[in-house]
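Figure 2 data, in text form.
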Amino acid sequence: MKKIRVLIIEDSKVIRELLEHIIGSDPRLEIAAVTGSAEEALAMLEHVSPDVISMDIRLPGMNGLEATQRIMTEKPTPIVVVSAGDVCQDLQISIKALQAGALAVLEKPAGISSADYEPIARRLCTQLAIMS
């Protein structure tokens, strides 16, 4: 069975490594590429050709919202937004991300020691697999 190629766009090194661990542990998925900026992601999109993208909304430079719009215009690819906590502002951003073309908005996984870690990690991998 062909693995689903995931592009991770996340500016936090800690979260990026956590996402790499979670996605890399799922037999359905493989990491196509990892980047900390939307600009870099857009530049690599053509030759990386991911099946699905895990995208942070708050990025330095171009934010995840703009990046989602650009990706949907230039090389439509399923996008799952992985966003921090449930703050009102994040909710607004999440709604805008869905309007821009993202398919789902998920909560960022907390550290491995967190009680929510396993269910959130499983949900993320399942959502990436479904959306691809």
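Caption note: Residues 92 and 98 are 10 Å apart (CA to CA).
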